[in-house]
């Protein structure tokens, strides 16, 4: 579909409604009308009418002048997750991997400039941090972000044009250093995150491939530094790569790198 035709079929009212819904985040789950108008650029009168419509369908709720996402969205979560073929395929493997390593195992995709977590298998040996499906993390300070972008240096440059924050002393905030890091990841087939996102947490990740040999997702194993120091976590590389090959084969891949 060419750009002109696409513009013709797009509905401006729906676009505005989506922009309003996208205002809300884990960092800002509750917003006033004035804030919504400022974020979206939609004037307050129009935003108010659209919020009122969304309220009728339980997609927005309001209390004391503050708006927040409604319970109507909850019925969609299971539908979305169950429709994800890669999640359905990966879950049994994540459970195996988690049990074998006695570490939490994660599945994530690249979504925009962020890592989107879509599945996790937890082990009682390594319960250490908050997690929820749909959680997002920066690309530049996660092992999963590194494997998901290791073949895309130009994309990484776009990432670094956005805001880059230092979350720990080990967070990579220099673009050139990160580019060298992902080149190493591309060559070796795995990535590490040694306390780059969370103090006290180490992580190791490998990519998953589709039938065209494209990286479509990543799996990782993570745990506290007390039980998973850097030297130990590198011992898990062969097993992680084995699982990468097994899952990728299920996705139609005929090889890895």
3D structure, described in words:
With 257 residues, the chain is of the alpha+beta class. It has two domains: 3-71, Arc Repressor Mutant, subunit A; 84-250, Beta-Lactamase, CATH 3.30.450.40. It has eleven helices and nine strands. It has helices at 3-9, 12-21, 33-40, 44-56, 74-83, 85-101, 143-149, 153-159, 175-188, 230-233, 237-250; strands spanning 30-32, 60-63, 66-69, 104-111, 114-121, 136-138, 191-194, 201-209, 215-224. The two termini are 32 Å apart. The mean pLDDT is 89.
Task: Give the topology, please.
Elements: H1 3-9, H2 12-21, E1 30-32, H3 33-40, H4 44-56, E2 60-63, E3 66-69, H5 74-83, H6 85-101, E4 104-111, E5 114-121, E6 136-138, H7 143-149, H8 153-159, H9 175-188, E7 191-194, E8 201-209, E9 215-224, H10 230-233, H11 237-250
Antiparallel strand pairs: 1-3, 2-3, 4-5, 4-9, 5-6, 7-8, 8-9
Helix pairs in contact: 2-4, 6-11
Summarize the structure.
The protein contains eleven helices and nine strands. The protein has 257 residues and is α+β, with helices and mostly antiparallel strands. It has two domains: 69 residues, Orthogonal Bundle (Arc Repressor Mutant, subunit A), CATH 1.10.10.10; 167 residues, Beta-Lactamase.
Overall shape = globular
Radius of gyration: 20 Å
**CATH homologous superfamily heading of the largest domain:** GAF domain
Report the average pLDDT across residues. Answer: 89
Count of individual beta strands = 9
Largest sheet: 6 strands, antiparallel
State the end-to-end CA separation.
32 Å
SS strand fraction: 15-25%
**What is the N-to-C succession of helices and strands?**
HHEHHEEHHEEEHHHEEEHH
């Amino acid at each position: 579909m060419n750009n002109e035709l696409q513009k013709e079929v797009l509905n401006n009212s729906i676009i505005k409604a989506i922009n309003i819904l996208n205002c809300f985040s884990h960092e800002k789950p509750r917003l006033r009308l004035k804030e919504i108008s400022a974020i979206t650029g939609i004037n307050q009168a129009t935003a108010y009418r659209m919020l009122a419509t969304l309220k009728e369908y339980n997609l927005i709720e309001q209390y004391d002048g503050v708006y927040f996402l409604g319970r109507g969205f909850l019925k969609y979560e299971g539908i979305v997750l169950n429709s994800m073929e890669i999640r359905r395929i990966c879950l049994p493997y994540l459970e195996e991997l988690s049990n074998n390593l006695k570490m939490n195992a994660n599945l994530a995709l690249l979504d925009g400039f962020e890592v989107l977590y879509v599945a996790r298998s937890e082990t009682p040996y390594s319960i250490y941090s908050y997690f929820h499906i749909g959680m997002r993390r920066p690309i530049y300070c996660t092992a999963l972000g590194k494997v998901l972008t290791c073949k895309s240096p130009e994309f990484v440059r776009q990432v670094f044009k956005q805001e880059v924050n230092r979350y720990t002393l080990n967070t990579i905030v220099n673009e050139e250093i990160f580019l060298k890091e992902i080149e190493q990841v591309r060559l070796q087939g795995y990535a590490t995150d040694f306390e780059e996102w969370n103090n006290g947490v180490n992580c190791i990740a490998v990519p998953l491939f589709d039938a065209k040999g494209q990286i479509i997702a990543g799996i990782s194993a993570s745990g506290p530094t007390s039980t998973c120091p850097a030297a130990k976590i590198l011992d898990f590389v062969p097993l992680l790569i084995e699982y990468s090959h097994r899952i990728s084969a299920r996705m139609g891949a005929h090889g890895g790198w």
